[in-house]
Specification:
9 helices, VC0802-like, 12 strands, elongated, 328 residues, 2 domains, 5-stranded mixed sheet, Rossmann fold, alpha/beta, 32% helix
């Protein structure tokens, strides 16, 4: 989440420097702070991102004191900008110059918001927490019916569903960049977290089940659920899709099955998707199914009528969330 710091017209470095002097940098930084700039310049007379970052850094030094500047003016594409994370403890300023209008914003989050703080361990192809939450929401899960993930990996879908149903704020167990700002009020923040914790529900009314054939990733999923505080809400099992046994009560299957990005990998997954479709038709009648897919051929092999409900990317791979209902 970003906070608007300042917006002004600047078609010369002289104008940029003059306006930058007026910015209250000391509301976001203290002497010795580590600062990072992400600068984009489009259709502006000031087109050199490094030079823009250097001028802003100079204005910060004059107002705050000595700082540590990292990656000044780093150029990123629109796609990269969605995934760039500030891993070191630094304050990121996002600077956009468009048609000579300069907009400066401060990143109040630090690490990307999909990093909830509970997933210290993950499998080979982890699903972003925010995407997992979007899958649960898009499925239409009523938070009372059973929800099953037969390809749970590190447990992200089940954990996000549990957090959602129990009304636990997803960022409750992580730190944010604004906590390093000089005006940060720790007592007020603690009170807000205490109120959020108090409003959370003690448990679930529906069953959450997550399984995977890989014993190792199931152990990771259990560790992640414990860190998220929802371990008691999820039934984890180590078993293949052939042993899939959902609750007899109709519910929801929300899952992210493996999808290969190379031709050979896709060929090897045909049997898996065929088996998934067979198992769902046999054992999950009346269930709503939400599947994340990157391959239309594999989708068709499932032989279940599915409709696209959203498109996005997962790990840079274009994916679609498909939803349908298994006939009773």
């Amino acid at each position: 989440m970003i906070v608007r710091v300042e917006k002004f017209h600047a078609d010369s470095f002289h104008e940029l420097e003059r306006r930058a002097k007026r910015i209250p940098w000391d509301e976001y930084l203290t002497k010795g702070s580590r600062v990072q700039f992400r600068v984009t310049c489009r259709k502006s007379r000031l087109y050199h991102s490094d030079a823009v970052a250097e001028r802003l850094a100079e204005s910060i030094i004059k107002r705050v004191g000595v700082i540590d500047v990292a990656n000044a003016g780093a150029k990123v594409t629109d796609e990269e900008e969605q995934h760039v994370a500030v891993d070191a403890p630094s304050q990121l300023f996002i600077v956009r110059l468009s048609h000579d209008e300069c907009t400066i914003s401060a990143d109040s989050s630090g690490s990307l918001l999909h990093r909830r703080g509970y997933r210290e361990a993950s499998g080979k192809a982890p699903l972003r927490e925010t995407l997992a939450a979007a899958m649960v929401l898009s499925s239409g899960w009523d938070q009372r019916s059973p929800l099953v993930d037969p390809f749970c990996g590190s447990g992200t879908i089940a954990i996000e569903a549990a957090l959602m149903a129990r009304r636990i704020p997803p960022g409750l167990r992580r730190n944010f960049a604004f906590q390093q700002w000089p005006g940060y009020q720790e007592a007020a923040w603690r009170q807000l977290k205490a109120e959020a914790t108090k409003s959370s529900l003690p448990g679930l009314t529906g069953a959450l089940m997550a399984s995977d054939r890989d014993d190792g990733v199931v152990r990771l999923a259990i560790e992640n659920a414990a860190r998220a505080g929802v371990l008691e809400d999820i039934q984890f099992r180590s078993k293949p899709i052939s042993a899939f046994e959902p609750s007899p009560e109709p519910g929801f299957v929300v899952t992210n099955p493996p999808y290969g990005v190379r031709v050979g990998e896709r060929v090897g997954l045909r049997n898996l998707y065929a088996q998934l479709g067979n198992v769902l038709r046999k054992k999950a009648r009346g269930y709503t199914v939400a599947v994340l897919s990157a391959d239309k051929t594999l989708e068709r092999i499932m032989a279940i009528p599915l409709t696209e409900v959203l498109r996005t990317r997962n790990g840079g791979i274009p994916v679609r969330l498909l939803e349908g209902r298994v006939e009773p």
